[in-house]
C-alpha cells in the first residue's frame, strides 16, 4: 500500500534551536577562570548542606548524618568543608594517655588531659625516671648511707656473735669444747683445758659420763635454738636494710616527684598516677640501684634478688622501666579546634584501635605501651568521616562502630574477644568516653539498604544529607559553575579555562544531566574532562584551555570506549543485523534502545515486528515467553491489550492474537520505553498500513494513549542518526520522541548540523494519534458526534478490523466442528 501524507494535521519536525540549549560565553564577564575567586561547593545543594549543618548543631545522641548522592557529586568535599568550618569554632578536645596500673597490670588506666598536656606529662615522667636513675644510685653510694648500712649489719653480726659467745661460755663452764668440723659443729669433753682421750673418757664413772652426755645435749639444744633464730635475724636484717633503703630513697623520690606533681596539680587523676609511681619506685628501689653488695648474715646463704616487674624484653636494658612510661596515644598539641578525621581504610583495628604483640621465646607478649589509637580516638571530640561502602566491606568494622556509638565509649579489644572467642590478647584497657559526630558518605542504594535491613541504623544516623543529581541551569548557577571549574583547575595545576571552554563544559554538564535545563553535579567526570583537555592544550603549546580542547577531550574519551558501538553499527551496515532506513512495511518498525558499557551509553536501533490473527485478545510478548523480557517490558506489552480493548472494542470482545518481538535480540529486553513503538507496529499490522522505515521511534505509552517520557533520548537519537549517516542521509530520515523529552535534548553538533540542513528530522509527539499519522501518513481520525471514527482514518480502520475479527471469531465459534460434521454424514438413515 502506498504511503499517503496527511493534509494538515501532520506535526512539523523540531528545529535545531528546540533540540539543544547552548550556553552563551558572552554571559561570563571574564577572559579566563584565573580571574575568578574560588568556589568550593556546587550551588543548588541547600537541602543537603542544611541537613549537615543541622546534624552538627544537634548535640543529642544519635544525630549522626548519612550523606548520600551520586558518585562524583562533591559530597566528600562539601562535607569536609562544612566539618572543618564547624571544627574551627569548637574548643580543642583532650589528650589521652594509657598508663600502667600498678594494682592490676592487665587493666591499664586511661588518663584524660587538656590538649598539649599529654606530651608534657610524657616528657615529665621520662625526665623523672632518668633523674631517679641518677639520684638513687648516688644516694646509695654516699658515705652516710654506707655507714648506716654498716651499723645495721654490724648490729646483726654482733647479735649472732653474742649468742655464740654465750653458748661457748656455757660450754666452757661445764668443760665442753665446741669445734668446727667438716660435718658441722661438734662437742667434746675437756679436763684441765685439754680434750679427753677416749680411754680417759671410758675411765670415767657411769655417773660422770651421763653428766657429760647431759651437758652436751643441753649445749646442742642451745645451739639448735640459736641456729633457728639466725634466719629470723637475717630477715630482720633485710627488713632493716629495706627500711633503710626506702627511707633513704623516699627522700630523693619525694624531692624529685614534688616538682613533677606541681606541674599537674590541677589534674587529680594525674596526681594519683604520680603518687602510684612514687610508691612503686620506693618499693622497688633496687631497680634503680644497679649492682650492689648485700650483707648476708648467713655465710653461703641465698642473696635476695631485685624484682623485675614490667619487663617485656630480656634484651632491653630499659625493659624494667617500661611500666613508668606514658603511652600518649592521642596528642592534640598542634591542633586548633576539634579534629576532622577521614578514615580511608576503615578496618576494625583502624577504627577501634589495636594492641600490638611481639614474639619472645616463642610466645606473644604485650604491655600498655603497645596500645595503638584508632580513628575514633583521633576524632574523639570532633568529627569522623567514613565511606559507607568501605566500612561495610571490612569484617567487624560496622558492628564495632555501632557498638562504640551505642555505648558512647571506645573499648580497645580484639573483635573475637567481644564475640566470646579466645584470643591472644592479655590486656583489657580502660575504655575511653566517646563524644563524636560520624558522617557516613555513600550511595543512595546503600542508604536504603541499611535503613531497611539494619535495625540500629535509624537510631544511630538520624539525619540524611541528600545531594541533588542536578541543579537548575541559570546564569547565576553558570557563573557559580565557572568559579568551581576555576577552583578545580587551580587545585590540580591545570591551565585556566577560557569563557568559551566554560560554556562548552556547561553544555556537556547538561548533556550528562540528560536535561537541557539542568547542570549535572557529577564533578568527577567534569574534572576528568578538564584534565584531558589540559593535556591537549599543553601538547599544542597553549596557555589556556579553550573550547577546541574540550571538544578534543570529549571526542577522545568517546573514541576510547566506542569499540562495541562501532562493532554493532558495522553489523547493521553489513546486513548482519537487519535495520531498514528507507521504504515502508506493514507491522514493522524501528525501535531504539540504550546499551551501557561501563560509564559509556550509546543508542542502538532494533527492528520490532508484529504478526496477528483471530484469537482471544491476547498480545503475546515473545521476549517474555522465552525469559528474555524483563518485568517492565512485559508491563508495557500488557498495556497494549488494555489500550486496544478500551478504545476500539468496548462493546464486543477483543478477538485478535498478536505476537510482538524484538528481532535479533539475544541479550534480553527490559524497560517500557518501546511500548509506544510496539503499539504503532501493532496498529500497522491491524490496519495493514505500512510504516515508514526511515523513522525510528521511542517512547512509553499509558492506557489512555498518551506518549510518556523515556531515558537516554540523546543516545537513542544519535544511535539511529549514525546508522543513517553511514548509509547516507536522504532528507527523510529521523526519530520520533515523546514531547516531554524535548527538554532533555543536548545533541551532538553533527546531528544539529544535519537538522539545520534538513537532512535529518526529529518529531515530538504527545499522543499515539499524532505518532501514527507521522509514521503512516494517514490521519488518525476522531470520533464524530455519533461516536464513529472516519472510515478512512487509522482509528476507523483499526476499529473496523477488530470488529471483523470479532465477527470471524463468533462465526467460527457457531460453526460445527469438522468431527461433528463427519459424524452427521456417516449416521444411518431410518
Shape: elongated
The first-to-last residue Cα distance is: 57 Å
Please, what is the oligomeric state? single chain
Largest sheet: 7 strands, mixed
Task: Tell me the total number of β-strands.
Answer: 30
The chain-level mean pLDDT equals 84
Number of alpha- plus pi-helical segments: 29
The helix fraction, in percent, is: 40-55%
Radius of gyration: 49 Å
Unreliable stretches covering 5 or more consecutive residues: 1-9, 294-315
Description:
With 830 residues, the protein is an alpha/beta fold. It is 47% helix and 16% strand. The protein is built from 29 helices and 30 strands. The strands form ten sheets. It has a seven-stranded mixed sheet with strand order 23-24-22-21-26-29-30, with helices on both faces. α4 runs antiparallel to α7. The longest helix is centred in the first third of the chain and has 58 residues, at 206-263. It is elongated and about 165 Å long. Mean pLDDT is 84; it is low at 1-9 and 294-315.
Write a short abstract of this structure:
By secondary structure, the chain is an alpha/beta fold. It is built from 29 helices and 30 strands.
Topology:
Elements: H1 16-19, H2 46-57, E1 65-68, H3 75-89, E2 95-99, E3 109-113, H4 117-140, H5 143-173, E4 176-181, E5 184-191, E6 194-195, H6 198-203, H7 206-263, H8 268-283, H9 286-289, E7 327-330, E8 340-343, H10 348-352, E9 354-355, E10 358-360, E11 363-365, E12 371-372, H11 375-379, E13 383-387, H12 388-393, H13 397-407, E14 409-410, H14 415-418, E15 432-433, E16 437-442, H15 444-453, H16 457-460, E17 463-466, E18 470-472, H17 475-491, H18 499-513, E19 518-520, H19 523-539, H20 547-561, H21 563-573, E20 584-585, E21 588-597, E22 600-614, E23 618-621, H22 622-625, H23 631-648, E24 656-662, H24 675-687, E25 691-692, E26 695-697, E27 700-701, E28 707-708, H25 713-727, E29 734-738, H26 749-756, E30 761-765, H27 768-776, H28 794-814, H29 818-826
Helix pairs in contact: 2-3, 4-7, 5-7, 7-8, 17-18, 18-20, 19-20, 23-24, 24-27
